[in-house]
## 1
Amino acid sequence: MATVRKRTWNKGTPNEKTAWIADYFDQQGDRHIKTFPRQAEAKAWLAETTIQVKQGTHTAERQSVTVAQAAELWFENRRDVEKLETATLKQYRNHIRLHIVPKIGGIRLAQLSAPIVDDFKDRLLAANSRVMTGKVLTSLRSILAHAQAKGRVGHNAAAAVRLGAKQRRESGRLEIGRDIPAKDEVRRILDAVQGTRWHPILATAAMAGLRSSELRGLRWNDLDLDVGILRVRRRADETGNMGSPKSAAGARDIPMSPWLVNVLKRWRLECPRAKGVLDLVFPNGKGHVENHANIANRGLYATERKLGILDAAGSPRYGMHSLRHFFASLMIEQNHLPKRVQEMLGHSSLQMTYDRYGDLFPAGDGERTKMEQASAFLAATKSV
């Protein structure tokens, strides 16, 4: 039976102390107690714990793993079971090593609460960008969700902690000329690399919207140059290992413009070939998987410096992912439906597409006229 009882030490002396004890049995029949300074706190905690015991999800504090231990178990699952690519695992490892473990790694999951996670968020914001803070919080939520699924904690203390909807929209809003290259900038970049091996890969990035890893993993048998279809079926991680697309939605067919088809037909005649099975569309000089940094530094950034396409700090304004943003903006401009834009980008959900590019979709000009036209059939009805 679960009860809350009062306990007093040194009664009748100047050192008298009082506490409230939550006394209960877990789902295995083991007895536990937890001490609180106030009765209301003890009752509230015990009520929630009783529900967890009935559901079979409760973990007593002394049996609970720490955040650091839960993070390591989660990372091992991502590496050994889900077999995520090296670059993604490296990012997760940095989130754990640099942010999560130093700040809250020693706290047991059963002791972790939303206020503690919210304080963790505030400390992250004080020392890091909002984007990095959001990524670390996402990793923490995933760590706790994994622990919850494995029965190591009853609830996800990070589930309700957010940066704030308004702030997320402001930080995530993409602008042409800052985050997305303008058409004239893309034309100048492609003109500047004409005749080099960077031209076809930058052209495909801008006119088909592939991620860098997808470009580096693209094979000639993924292209149907007669029909004008590019099929994304694999990607290359930062170490050059080939694997499946980032998600199930990542496997997709993208229609190519006649211009891009002609670019790739010309490139096929010049493309370096290696004796082996890769048959890559955009290999390095020896026919093997090209390095992302090589494409970005020697292909894109050097060209931007040459053309003076720089930010306020004098650095190249756009990265490889900016060309993917350009493709998305181009498809939206051509009035493709949001669902089709999602499919061509390989996003796992329509919400992801809206979160990233929602501000680029038409705002609904002429809505009043459209509503009048929609109700025109009622013009002949009798007035009431």
## 2
Amino acid sequence: MSAATGSPSVNTAAVAAMRAGRTAEARWLLEEAVARDPNDIMLWLNLAGARRALGENGAAFAAVEAALRIDARSFHALLMKASLIERTGDLVQAAIGYGLALTQAPPRDRLDAATQRAHDHAIEVYGDYTKRLRVHLADAVSGEKAAAKSEESRRIGAFIDHFAGSRRIFQQRPSTFYYPGLPSIEFYPRDLFPWLDQLEAATPAIQAELAEIFSSAESPSGFSPYVAYADGLPLDQWAELNHSPRWTAFHLLKDGVPVAENWVRVPATGAAIRRAPTPDVQGRSPAAMFSVLQPKTRIPPHNGVSNTRLVVHLPLVIPPGCGFRVGNETRKWRIGEAWVFDDTIEHEAWNESGDARTILIFDIWSPFLSPNERELIQRVTRAADAFNGNLPGGDL
């Protein structure tokens, strides 16, 4: 690993000497240079490299520390410091050092070949460390975790993963409506929603209604692209799917009201949805639909509109090769097995099969909102829409 040049003439001569095998000469040149210019970080880094090549690890470490006093976030200095610690045999502290260096790493393709190799070694050492740390921490609570309730076990497992650095921290990032104090939970525990059993029991009836829609000559007019931004709006990750038939919806409830010509065709589905605590926010929610994702199609990572509501999925037609990720957790749909998730946490879906995937989607209130809070949220939203001229703003 070699640093970029600092003081040009000295660094050029020192690097040339090292490449020619005259490492002691390079060290002497660089020691003379840092005595004259102690604030040149590249001189210190190249000096550290020369001393390390000569086996002078203590002196090399001192040169790296001098570089870090100039720039505490220097990737090259942090990487070299970790490599010097690794030489002492302290693999734990070396891994921690490599992890710190990786937080400052530039894109790999901007590194020279030697630094790329050092970068990849850092990833390997740090990855092994996080795996061993996670096992060690899990063993420390293995008995208690086994005795814990399922949700407690999930949470302590996530806590360990976060601490070990093997799990990213995803937070709610609603695009429009943020209500403070609500938890960031990717997939919610089932026991918060006792009506899920009834919803799942209705799966055959809902599938029959869906099959009737698919077989009807009228059905093509009932499906529309899920992503439908007007011209002139920024599309970002939605450019590929905007107005595309690759992801369509058969809307049952939209902007808080039934889509009459569709709703009348699904009495069993409607009855199942009405058993759930759907939001009632004028002009915005509830929303409910059959969502169809065509083969070889991916819904890009995105965040929902409001954390005051959660989203329910009931899988109805699921070919192999379909999946869904919310935050850190990836799941496969299984026909008739519903789940509830927070769509304001980054999520994405994919269908890698050769057949269409169809699920029932609808929204519900967050179970952590009191009845009074729900009423106040309704009032605030209605007041905002009235102030803004009742412009449609998407579901809440």
